[in-house]
Amino acid sequence: MLIALGIMVIVLSLMLARAPQWILVTLLALSVILAAGSVSFGGFERATAPVVAYALALGLLVPAGVAAYRSSRVAPPLHKRRLRGGPVMRRRRTTTKGGDAVVVYGKDEPLAIPGYDVLEKVGSGGMASVFKAKRLSDGKIVALKVPMDQYVADAKFIRRFHREAEVAQRLDHVNIVQTFEHGSLGPQHFMVMEFVDGRSLEGYIEAAELSIDLSAAIMQRVTDALQHIHAAGIIHRDIKPANIMIMRGGIVGSDPQRLSDHAVKLMDFGIAGGKVLSRLTMTGARVGTPVYMSPEQARGLKIDHRSDIYSLGLVFYEMLTGQTAFKGGYEAIVHQQIFQTPAPPRQLNLRVPKALDALVMRMIAKDPDDRPTLAAVLEVLLATDFGEAAGEELDDAIVLTVNSRQGVVRLLDTEGNLHLSLGDLGVADDAFSTAPVSVAVGSDGHLFAAAFEYRAGDESHRMITKLDPQGDVVGSFGPYGMKEGEFLYPASIAVAPDGSVYVLDSETHTVQRFDADGRYLARFGGRGAGQGTFADPRTLAVGPDGRVYVLDYGNRQVQRLSSAGVYETRWAFRLGADQEGMRLIDGFTVSGDGTLFISDGTSGKIRSVTPNGKLGTTYTFEKLHGEASDQLLDLGVDRAGVLYVARRGGHIIRRFMPDGTMLETVETYSPIVHMAVHSKPRTAVRATALRA
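The chain above was modelled as a monomer; its predicted structure follows.
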């Protein structure tokens, strides 16, 4: 009889595997009782068969019970939902003037949270919707965050949703959106948060409504909030403009704009977690926004609070420049995050103070160890002088022409920070049609740029442009041609201490001299084997005494001539005792004290020659990976004796101490067309110091 009952239990188990939970529990209890009865009345040996039958019944009932328990924790299909604990609030309809019905809540999902009156739907993200509601207990307006239907059945998502609320409830800061409570009613999960009436930072950036000082003020509040989050052992993981809200009325005034202390709110901890968590994935995608994702996050490595600092730096970059640091599709941006460094903010907006420019670049350093702490970020933000003069003169400046659409002529300080950006490419009267092949600065700060362009039928076009220290064009000279004062290809330009301008024409192998206003004075040189004539001359320089130096590339030598063009001497290097011929010379410069620096392209070394003809320091120049070796080297020396070396077509400038030790490299972020170093005359520097 007990065996027959066991068989009946098995049959019922098969028929009722998807029955309500209370029936499955009853059958489970019955199986246990029958098994115990079989052993008690018949002994273990005689009860073996019934017990096996009951075990089979248990094997069917237990998985069915677990499945029923799990399904009770997620939402059933939409058409079967019935909420408990309060009336069901379905969609509300209003009528337009034309009589059309309008759904306020969007979809026809039930929404009933006891104690709250839902007013309207105010937003919808990728995984949750946000409703504006009134708390019935005190009338306070709050925000209800509710998961979207397609994610409610995902147990992992629901755990993360409630973890977000638990994380947020631990935080109490004026610049963090407050979370009041969270819970669920059957399949309905919700989170109750502070309602922020305002706009996201993303909207302000897109509308170009942020000044630099206002951007810094907003960044101060966000940084302070993030400090509070990190102190609680939490990583935000999704710092981006859309998650930073500016409350209505929080920005007051127009000039200057002022920001109230409570105006900024950091929100959305949907992917926040403790420091022990590594990268999380959900619905097949990486967690985080690619544009603001840190390199370690993009690589799928374990992250810490420094990842948030990187993301915050990218947000600040966008606030200062109006554009994101990285652009493209998902995979392209991830590649850039890992391998590429964007141009500094000052390259895009010269009004950005140097302190903020340097701060942003430190924050977005690829190596987390190179990023500043949030305390250091706040210190810089509070100490920055927003009235910093962009036109302040430099004692030593790196002068560049680069292949770029904007700012083709740039002045950097000796550490590589952009000081001045001049000229754009275009067809306007004040634009360059092509990047200048050479640039020089006079003692009075005026710049001379040589840009080759032949315009058929335009007899008025000139290839040498003179600009004042502010970058305005004040003159031009040198049309295309072979007459005196004309050029076929003006390859190099230099300014003498007396203000006269020397231009090397690499096609005619001649050097022409002009006064500061572009009036033709003289011409010398020509094609030949040396001693005042040249073979493929590439570049020239003028020493502190007015003598002219020419890189006679084809003859593998540097020639020195008087200011009038009379040959005086030359420098060249032999290949070796057992070899005939001369070493390749691919660059040179003359310092302010008359020391000559010559690049020996054959050996990869730069040798200095003192004014009295003695060899001085030797600098070892190592080729970087991917760097071309068939392009000229541009050299320059500042007043402290630091040597600057740049390969044309590259984007790296090397700095060497006077003893030959390499200091560091400077990134130009655009291919170099020509580089020179300009130093103010020492008398001018002394006069400036006396005035100060």
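The radius of gyration is 37 Å.
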